[in-house]
Design a protein that fits this description.
This protein has about 220 residues and is of the alpha/beta class. It has helices at about 15-25, 50-55, 75-80, 95-105, 150-165, 185-190, 200, 205-215, and strands at about 5, 30-35, 60-70, 85-90, 110-115, 135, 170-175, 195. The relative contact order is 0.17. The structure holds D-xylitol-5-phosphate (DX5) and zinc ion.
Length: about 220
Amino acid sequence: MPHLVAPSLLSADFADLKSAVHMVDESPAPWLHLDVMDGVFVPNISFGLPVIRAIRPLTKKVFDVHLMIVRPENYITAFRDAGANLLSVHIEASPHLHRTVQAIKAAGMKAGVAINPHTPVSALEEVLADIDLVCLMSVNPGFGGQQFIPRTYQKIEALVELRKKTGSKALIEIDGGVGTGNARQLVHTGADVLVAGNSVFGAPDPAAAIRELSA
Ligand code: DX5
Ligand code: ZN
């Protein structure tokens, strides 16, 4: 499968979200990555349901919602109703991950599981065959514009192996510090989805940055 790019709205101009969504809508990126932070699971607060609901009519692109919140299982149908197509929860915030994954799928969405840099890929073994996406955090979640953690390459390799072993078809998404300097190597190692916040919205020409990351 050719890789795909998911621009992260976190780095967009929040005073002009409409223009940011339009730019992505006209770009080759098939997904829009939406980072929801609660100030508890991560040391930052971003945006939530009303913002996702407000931008949903602006595009048909896949809304890839990354929940960095505690008790994500309490908000599954709310995010579905707001317009999420794919919902990722953190393994570190989910003591009953299997149940949460089933609930996301029963709500009609694709299910993703995100893991922090310190969490080994092996922690996913028992759910990997049931999920549609693994969001491998390549920075500590909470902020855009951080430096990529190189150890991520080994985690991608381990995940590719585990995916084979478990018969899983989960996409491997890399989230944090992705840009033109590492995109090619990440895809070569096995990444299917590249999340890009700062390297897109911080670029002088965001649309050109998406095209370059998509190539
Ligand atoms: C970080 C978020 C990321 C963030 C990535 O907690 O999960 O999606 O937007 O931003 P960049 O690409 O700037 O590292
Ligand atoms: Zn994210």
